[in-house]
Amino acid sequence: MNYDPDKVWPSGLTIGEAEELHRHIIDGTRVFGFIAIVAHILAYVYTPWFG
Amino acid sequence: MNRFSRKAMQSWASLGPRFLPFADVATDDLPLSRLLRLSLFQVSVGMALVLLVGTLNRVMIVELTVPASLVGVMIALPIVFAPFRALIGFRSDVHSSALGWRRVPFIWRGTMLQFGGLAIMPFALLVLGGQGHANSAPVWIGYLGAATAFLLVGAGLHMVQTVGLALATDLAPVEDQPKVVGLMYVMLLAGMIFSALVFGLALENFSPGRLVQVIQASAVATVVLNVLALWKMEARHSRPGAVRGEARAETPEFAASWEKLINGGQAKRRLMVVGLGTLGFGMADVLLEPYGGQVLALSVADTTKLTAILAFGSLLGFAWASRVLGRGFDPLMMAGYGALVGVPGFLAICLAAPLGWPFLFVGGTALIGFGAGLFGHGTLTATMQLAPREQIGLALGTWGAVQATTAGVGIAFGSMMRDIILALPIGSWFGAATPYISVYALEILFLLAALAVIAPLLRGRATPGLSAS
């Protein structure tokens, strides 16, 4: 494997690549958080728990 | 760092790219196995389409007793996103990524949206139908929930299909593109047929719990299929003329790219052909079965077979078009033949009612399927082959925007026109067939208009060969 000075170990990614992956993970968490909230509200309306 | 973790780290690094979703080298040849794997995204799109337009349509009306007009509005919602396909395609063309990917991030985002929409869909539908405790809740919760679910699925599937087709165009060498288009269409159709059968079987004994299972299973299937399709598919840093790891100094504006695309190579005229032809073929889609049932008095089992015959005709069309276009035949000419075949098909269907020949109807249906197959294949192949290398996403997005919008509008307009003519005093001039025949006549007009628009494009290159590209 040829040596790339921009790469940061242990991940072997450059800073830019790592930041991009991080952004995808944060975006994914936000989207799924929103989806989960909506799903819980709808499920509660359909069959309320602790009711 | 202790000895153990250093060892673990080394073994992690030496695993290398084998277990990572990157294709490091762009290969020139595209083996069939890889192509088949890529086309799995079309299966997930087909599944979502069947779920929206077919299965849930019926479930909402019959099992959940939602008013038909409300169901119609919900199902029409995803079309709102169809025009944005051009924008999505453009964004994927100019996407600057440190990882060197252009298409993968968009397909992944589309997959997430489709998954999210399907995940909340069953609860939204149950609330919309006033099941369980939902009948004591405010009505708008059901409306909002169902609209959100349908919009998410629609946005997701348009995104996945647009960028997926752009990726396929990136990967395939020009001479293979007809083969790729054929495969993409066949897989879309196969995904639709297969998932329609599976959904039908799974929902036979309907219960709310079963609905949740089926729709959420399709959400998981979406993610699995799309990840399989994407894995190691796009080469990194494959942008034409890109500098490795650096974003370009300036990204082109959408408006400027749009101008360039639309004014080059008679693109406007080709898009008009796509729109007119899709309208021509698409308006009758939902009218074939009621026409067979109400006018020709065919049984339900027979009219279901009609849809199968239509699909079979399309399959034949895709196969034949792939074969002929693969030898270098002009794809626009093929699209013209498709429209030309459609005209006698609709004529045969019109004449079936006054002559009382169901056989004519079946034959006409098969011809329409065949013509639609040739037409769809021809226009998509032409779009792929004429797309400038750095504008593939935009070109395919525009094609998809026109195609999906006119298909949706056509279906809605076809059934609306039937209902309106039925209510008018002229509604029974030619017996029960009047509203249907007027829709079919309009479709013939649209096909003839498409032929008129396409004719100047073909002039001067009637012989096989792709001199224009």
TrEMBL record, chain A:
A bacteriochlorophyll binds at H22, H40. The chain crosses the membrane at residues 31-49. Keywords: Antenna complex, Bacteriochlorophyll, Cell membrane, Chlorophyll, Chromophore, Light-harvesting polypeptide, Magnesium, Membrane, Metal-binding, Transmembrane, Transmembrane helix. It is a single-pass type II membrane protein. It holds the Pfam family LHC. Residues 17-50 form the Antenna complex alpha/beta subunit domain. Its main location: membrane. GO terms for cellular component: plasma membrane; plasma membrane light-harvesting complex. One of its GO terms (biological process) is photosynthesis, light reaction. It is found in: Cell inner membrane. SUPFAM superfamilies: Light-harvesting complex subunits. GO terms for molecular function: bacteriochlorophyll binding; metal ion binding. Belongs to the antenna complex beta subunit family. Antenna complexes are light-harvesting systems, which transfer the excitation energy to the reaction centers. The core complex is formed by different alpha and beta chains, binding bacteriochlorophyll molecules, and arranged most probably in tetrameric structures disposed around the reaction center. The non-pigmented gamma chains may constitute additional components. This is Light-harvesting protein. It comes from Hoeflea olei. The lineage of its organism: Bacteria, Pseudomonadati, Pseudomonadota, Alphaproteobacteria, Hyphomicrobiales.
